[in-house]
Specification:
heterotrimer; A mainly beta (71); B alpha/beta (357); C alpha/beta (250); B: 357 residues; alpha/beta; Rossmann fold; seven-stranded mixed beta sheet; five-stranded mixed beta sheet; 13 helices; 17 strands; C: 250 residues; 37% helix; 18% strand; globular
């Protein structure tokens, strides 16, 4: 069981599907969804194992990620 | 009796600018503007201001824009050939409503179109004063800083070599020009982080929390502003026009030769008068029409191929009365007026027009 | 009850709105986020004036909660000179793209650096005129396809790109010159430290400070959106390098 040290709240409606967060996430817990938002873009979904490092927020051009850490 | 100090026109202008609060000046040396930059360089720091010898005219005027954006009284200048490089920035100041005073110490009179029509982009006009001598230039300097702040616009003095270099006894009297609106639009950083940060932008779309009207409405508003200025800021001088059969129209220092010749001819009983726009824009068209209505001949005397004459044609009621008696005329240095600026030459041309039945 | 700590808000405090119109994968907002965070962390938002040129990054200016002045294309450092001379205690930052600074405004940045003006100039360099649709600038790297170098920039026909950081570092009035990038989170963090150092040195009146940030423009580069970061590394970082090119003596 991967320890969950953090989480993200994502404003998926403004995601433009650039995919930059996917390889930027060190534990690789982001994956682009098969669904699309109202802009027509795929957006990220979060799997277990987020460390709350905020790398996704640092690379996202569209200010999608709000990043939290537990404890 | 007030004390008068003998000083070069450029120095008198510099003193007047500093006296009304100019605290930023930038320029690039170019004759006959150079002395104004020299005097500012020497005197402005002691008055708590900044004078920069910029590396290009484009940088000079853009530095002045930056200073103006903070609310400071800022100025720049050159001669017409250098003002040519500043056209974009002058238009920018008109469209983003920054007060800026521009001194064109010109090489002759071939810059009328440049000053009054402007070479920048957009629907803007430039309030332009053309002093006839150093005392007027001192008065105009004070008015220009006031008008720039009052109307939030770039304004220009169209001076010249004669004004820049002639030593005259000057007693700068401070004009009471009234208040100017507070510069609430000026940038100093203080609104950053408040949610209502300021922005100066020719498109005026504003920021999300403080939306602007957008480029279409903003540019309409700016054009309307200049249309509202036009009937209120025109200045002119007319002499002996009431019974004049011939009226000579001229501007700038050229008008002093016209004054001399008109007085000479009047002493000989020749019914001649003169009209001089003091502001080239707004051009005092109504006053010109009134002053020339009774004249048989309207003689335009300017040292170029015919520039102000276009405005005379627009406003004079009887266009068939207009004759051009000027012409391009530079001396061999290319810096100043040539042989056409001569009382004898002018007198002969006026008499020729008088003789035409 | 588990405690939770906010590590990063979605929208930086100094950004009034995240709803910009920039392309997917654009590097400019990534870079600007770092800048806004530094300004906020340094506590200088209420004495900062930004002077912004013309390019896609204008979209960041018009959404930022900082006193802003748009200048003419390329003229930012000159305009900022006038601002800073009148407001010596303000923090004055110019923002340009490579088209604005390396093409149009090369004289301005070099003269301003030479005068040692105490401003910070930021260059968001994506090696292309993005705002006009993807055209060659003085920064476009050899081999880069643009609409005005369709077969790729060729030195015989188009000449060589200009490394403006090198020129600025060469001028005695510049106190700090650094180049970062935003193709990875690590690079973005490194860039943020460069911006912080530049602003601190401005406030210490050390001289002209300059941070160039290599940003992605997949649209202008004709590469897929997700390929921007890798392409940036292979083309621009390979040409220009990353690092602090000039630092003040200790």
């Amino acid at each position: 069981m991967t320890s969950v040290r953090g989480t993200v709240v994502m404003a998926t409606e403004r995601c433009k599907g650039c995919d930059l967060c996917i390889p930027a996430c060190p534990p690789r817990v982001l994956e682009m969804s098969s669904e699309t938002n109202t802009l027509g873009f795929h957006f990220p979904i979060l799997h277990d194992g987020c460390t709350g490092c905020a790398a996704c927020a640092d690379v996202c051009p569209d200010f999608v990620f709000e990043v939290w850490r537990y404890g | 009796m007030s004390t008068r100090t003998l000083m070069q026109g450029s120095e008198a202008i510099a003193d007047a600018a500093i006296a009304v609060g100019c605290r930023f000046f930038a320029g690039y040396p170019m004759l006959p503007f150079t002395e104004l930059l020299e005097h500012m360089s020497r005197k402005l720091p002691a008055a708590g201001g900044v004078c920069i010898n910029a590396d290009t005219e484009i940088e000079a005027v853009n530095m002045a824009l930056g200073a103006a954006a903070t609310g400071a009284r800022a100025a720049t200048g050159s001669c017409g050939q250098g003002i040519a490089l500043m056209q974009e920035a002058i238009a920018e100041a008109a469209l983003n409503e920054l007060p800026l005073v521009v001194f064109n110490m010109a090489r002759g009179q071939q810059d009328y179109f440049q000053a009054t029509r402007g070479g920048g982009w957009g629907d803007y006009r430039t309030i332009t004063f053309a002093p006839k001598d150093v005392p007027e230039a001192v008065e105009h300097t004070q008015r220009l800083f006031h008008l720039a702040d009052l109307h939030r616009a770039p304004v220009m003095m169209l001076g010249d070599y004669v004004i820049a270099h002639t030593h005259v006894g000057v007693s700068p009297a401070a004009l009471d020009l009234g208040p100017v609106p507070p510069k609430e639009w000026a940038l100093d950083g203080s609104m950053g982080g408040t949610g209502r940060a300021r922005q100066i932008w020719t498109w005026d779309r504003g920021k999300p929390n403080t939306p602007g009207v957008g480029p279409d409405q903003h540019w309409k508003d700016v054009a309307a502003k200049f249309a509202a200025i036009e009937p209120t800021e025109a200045r002119w001088e007319e002499r002996l026009v009431e019974d004049a059969e011939v009226v000579v129209v001229s501007w700038g220092t050229t008008a002093t030769v016209v004054d001399y010749v008109v007085d000479e001819l009047r002493a000989d009983g020749v019914p001649v008068g003169s009209f001089r726009p003091v502001t080239l824009w707004p051009f005092p068209g109504e006053a010109l029409a009134d002053a020339t209505r009774g004249a048989r001949r309207i003689l335009v005397y300017e040292l170029n191929a015919g520039q102000m004459i276009d405005d005379v044609r627009i406003h004079a009621e009887d266009r068939s009365a207009i004759r051009f008696i000027g012409g391009v005329s530079q001396d061999q240095t290319g810096m100043r007026q040539g042989d056409l600026l001569d009382a004898g030459v002018l007198r002969a041309r006026v008499l020729e027009a008088v003789k035409e039945g | 009850m588990t405690e939770m700590r906010l590590m990063a808000p979605a929208i930086p405090k100094l950004l009034q709105s995240p709803d910009h119109e920039l392309c997917p994968g654009c590097g400019h907002p990534v870079a600007w986020r770092q800048v806004l965070e530094v300004v906020d962390e340094l506590g200088i938002a209420d004495r900062t004036v930004i002077v912004v040129g013309h390019g896609c990054y204008t979209q960041m200016m018009i959404r930022s909660d900082l006193d802003s002045l748009q200048c003419l294309h390329g003229r930012g450092p000159a305009v900022a000179t006038g601002v800073k001379r009148m407001l010596p205690d303000a923090v004055v930052i110019t923002l340009s793209g490579d088209g604005d600074m390396v093409s149009e405004g090369l004289a301005e940045v070099l003269h301003t650096a030479a005068r040692g003006e105490r401003i910070t100039s930021l260059l968001f360099n994506n090696g292309v005129f993005g705002d006009t649709g993807g055209h060659m600038t003085a920064s476009t790297v050899v081999g880069q396809r643009t609409k005005t170098s369709l077969a790729g920039r060729d030195v015989e026909e188009h000449g060589y790109p200009i490394d403006v950081s090198r020129l600025v570092a060469d001028v005695d009035g510049s106190a700090y010159v650094a180049r970062g990038a935003v193709n990875t989170a690590g690079m973005a963090a490194r860039t943020k430290r460069m911006v912080r150092r530049a602003l601190e040195l401005q406030m210490a009146r050390a001289g002209f400070t300059f941070v160039e940030v290599l940003t992605m423009c997949p649209t202008g580069w004709f590469v897929p959106t997700a390929g921007g970061p890798e392409y940036l590394e292979e083309s621009m970082i390979a040409t220009y390098g990353i690092g602090e090119h000039k630092t003040p003596p200790d």
